[in-house]
Design brief:
The structure holds two protein chains of two kinds. Chain A is mainly alpha-helical. Chain A is built from nine helices and no strands. Helices cover 69% and strands 0% of the residues of chain A. Chain B is flat, with a radius of gyration of 18 Å. Classes of the chains: A mainly alpha, B mainly alpha. At the A-B interface, helix 6 and helix 8 of A face helix 3 of B.
């Protein structure tokens, strides 16, 4: 046991030294042009003015497509473990009224985050996280399916991000632009469309992850809720 | 102004490392998760200080908020199933 701890400690120490060296090398080692300058110089060609969105949705769109696929795979994994556990007890009056005012605010903020992502910090992942948070709050206040739509629609919502991304990319390829290459004339709208689909998919996936299993087909009275119909 | 910011950064990074160690060494899952959420919120501040507001937003919303909520419910189930396992199972499970 002692020997094993020693081995772990020495390995971690070497790993730490290696990481420190990599950091030092990354900060000081390179003298020629770095990738950030290259990306910043070509932002006008991306269709958006926020550098982060330009990189995520245009220059390295393939990465983002695969990230959405990873999220989809995670949800499939969660659903394959069985059906969702029963919900919590219905919320008391204070939590209910808080939920009634916080959830619409979260949905509104998510829409704002999605739109503002084109020119300032924000974007699909942050907006989707806010939608997911709205779902978590609804689940915590006693709604058995976290305000998510019925299962067939939920399935559509979770694949929406990957689907919209792939279909757009293939359509652009068919039009002669190349897979995941956005012509400047349509780039802004293509990015907005993909981000909208991704926001819905991320929100649905994160809220569904909190149910810890495939949602049970709703038969109850509280299954359909105002917040749920929006997603 | 820079001295104040430097002091703030030092305080932030030491607190961050302290919280990380506390979360890792905590024996009780629930306590560890709450420490992890505090860690995530401070990490969002660090990203903001590094002028990466996008990452700060994502860290606060996903890293601290949603991951925290997921782990809290996981921790509740872990502590809920542990006493029964300790009491009933060891005799059957050992051999």
């Amino acid at each position: 046991m002692r020997a094993r701890n020693l081995v772990i400690a020495v390995t971690l120490a070497f790993l730490g030294i290696y990481l420190a060296w990599v950091f030092l090398e990354g900060v000081t080692g390179q003298t020629d042009a770095r990738l950030a300058d290259l990306a910043l110089a070509r932002i006008p060609e991306s269709g958006v003015s926020n550098p982060v969105t330009a990189v995520l949705l245009n220059f390295r769109a393939y990465d983002t497509l695969l990230e959405l696929a990873v999220l989809l795979a995670a949800i499939l994994g969660i659903w394959s473990t069985g059906s969702a556990v029963p919900g919590f007890v219905p919320a008391g009056p204070v939590l209910s009224s808080l939920t009634a005012s916080v959830v619409p605010l979260l949905v509104l903020t998510a829409g704002y985050m999605l739109w503002v992502g084109a020119h300032s910090p924000g974007g699909a992942f942050q907006a989707g996280a806010l939608l997911g948070a709205a779902g978590v709050i609804m689940r915590l206040s006693g709604r058995p399916n976290a305000g998510l739509p019925p299962l067939p629609w939920l399935r559509v919502a979770t694949v929406l991000g990957v689907l919209a991304f792939t279909v757009t990319a293939l359509a652009l390829m068919g039009a002669g632009a190349g897979f995941l290459t956005f012509p400047l004339a349509v780039a802004k709208w293509v990015i907005l469309a993909i981000e909208t689909a991704a926001t819905l998919a991320i929100g649905a996936a994160l809220a569904a992850a909190y149910l810890a299993g495939e949602p049970v087909v709703a038969t109850g009275t509280t299954a359909t809720s105002p917040g749920g119909s929006e997603r | 102004m820079t001295e104040v910011l430097l002091a703030f950064d030092l305080l932030l990074s030491t607190t961050l490392v302290g919280l990380a160690m506390a979360a890792l060494t905590s024996r009780e899952p629930r306590r560890a998760v709450i420490l992890f959420i505090a860690f995530g919120l401070l990490l969002a501040l660090v990203w903001a200080r590094l002028r990466a507001p996008d990452v700060a937003l994502a860290e606060a919303a996903i890293g601290a908020g949603l991951a925290g909520a997921l782990m809290l419910s996981a921790a509740r189930r872990a502590t809920g199933s542990r006493p029964s396992r300790n009491k009933t199972r060891p005799a059957n499970e050992e051999r």
